Amino acid sequence: MKTHTLLPVALAAAQAIACSGTPGLADPGGTPGAGNPPTTQLQLELVATGLNAPVYLTAPPDDSRLFVVEQGGRIRIIEDGQVRGTPFLDIGGLVTAGGEQGLLSLAFHPEYAGNGYFYVNYTDLTGDTRVVRYTVSGNPSLADAASAKPILAVSQPYANHNGGLVTFGPDGMLYIGMGDGGNAGDPSNHGQNRNTLLGALLRIDVDSGDPYAIPPDNPFADQAGARGEIWAYGLRNPWRFSFDAPGGMLYVADVGQSAWEEVNAVATTAAGVNYGWRLMEGTHCFNPSVNCNQTGLELPVLEYGHSQGCSVTGGYVYRGSALAGVTGHYFFADYCSGWVRSFRLANGEATDQVSWDTGSVGRITSFGLDASGELYVLTDQGTVYRFN
């Protein structure tokens, strides 16, 4: 069974099953992104060590601090180069953590400076997904743990493929990435079922309704037999997705089953996109394994096979100022093999592909952006690095 496993204790089993071949060998055939791109040096600056299974990094608008999500249920603040001893929030007692479960992401409201709202996505003590809003306390370094307001709950049939990312889009809506619910091959076909929130990218309006409203321009808002929260579907385990507002694009990295990893790119306004799972794994038929009907499916702009890695970690399009010559490049990684790559999207194709030599930093669990648009990577060694 192919998963994106985060904790090192579960990694060996996942790799033994999922990673066939030797990372670094080019795949045969004319599939997008199949060969190894040229390698270029990239310096990483060590920002923090000693974190416990960091899985996400972000920052509020116009805030120089970094907020790091630890899988076990804590949010830590890095300020002036130091990890603060007291967590910003600790909900470890509410979280099931291990394997692919845990506190998985954090999103600050665009008006955080005024309303103090932020949103978290975690698996609760029964293993189900919870999206909850919290409010900062009078101390800007401490959240009010008693301010929890439940926003969304999604039952999970298995312990893996939780997706887990919450982020605000350029339109001010809250987007939530949901995996297919787990087990190998999506046995319940959640990816192609629009009457479940599993296997989908959700879009909700947290500034209207209680606890939220369904935006009227969501593609299935008024359609019988479909959930109005769904913005796109056909996903296996999106780890992660991100918006590039200047380019008007949404990038979704979807972890594959047993052979292919993929990166998708569509316009931010593209509603109702079907990314293909479980009909497709990358650009290849999966179920059925031959002669699948690809009509209306969105196929990836880039894929790579398991001779090069086994679990894609999606990142961001770079729009910062520290790196010269790579503005507009989308950065991504492979968790098992530890490499970092990038490409530039041009006319719907992945061009200018680069493999970045970052040294031995460990397995990359997530990328992050600070308020200035600079790029970071987090590793299973408890470290945070900044791209320089």
Molecular structure report:
The chain has 388 residues and is mainly β. The chain has a single domain (8-29, 52-312), classed as 6 Propeller (Neuraminidase), CATH 2.120.10. Helix content is 4%, strand content 39%. The chain has 2 helices and 29 strands. The protein has helices spanning 8-18, 112-115, and strands spanning 39-41, 44-48, 54-58, 66-70, 74-79, 82-83, 89-90, 103-108, 117-123, 129-136, 143-154, 166-168, 174-177, 200-204, 230-233, 238-244, 249-254, 260-267, 273-274, 280-281, 284-285, 302-305, 312-317, 329-334, 340-346, 349-357, 364-369, 375-379, 384-387. The strands form 7 sheets. Strands 1-26-25-24-23 form a 5-stranded mixed sheet, with no helix packed on it. A hairpin with a 7-residue loop joins strand 3 (54-58) and strand 4 (66-70). The protein is globular, with a radius of gyration of 19 Å. The two termini are 36 Å apart. The model is unreliable at 8-31 (pLDDT under 50).
Shape: globular
The total count of helices amounts to 2
* Number of domain modules: 1
Q: Tell me about the biggest sheet?
A: 5 strands, mixed
Low-pLDDT ranges: 8-31
Tell me the radius of gyration: 19 Å
Arithmetic mean pLDDT: 92
The CATH C-level name is Mainly Beta
Q: Walk across the major sheet and give the strand order.
A: 1-26-25-24-23
* Secondary structure: helix percent: under 10%
CATH topology: Neuraminidase
* CATH arch. level architecture: 6 Propeller
- Share of β-strand residues: 35-45%
Q: CATH homologous superfamily name? A: TolB, C-terminal domain
State the total count of DSSP E strands: 29
N→C terminal distance: 36 Å
Structural class of the secondary elements?
Answer: mainly beta
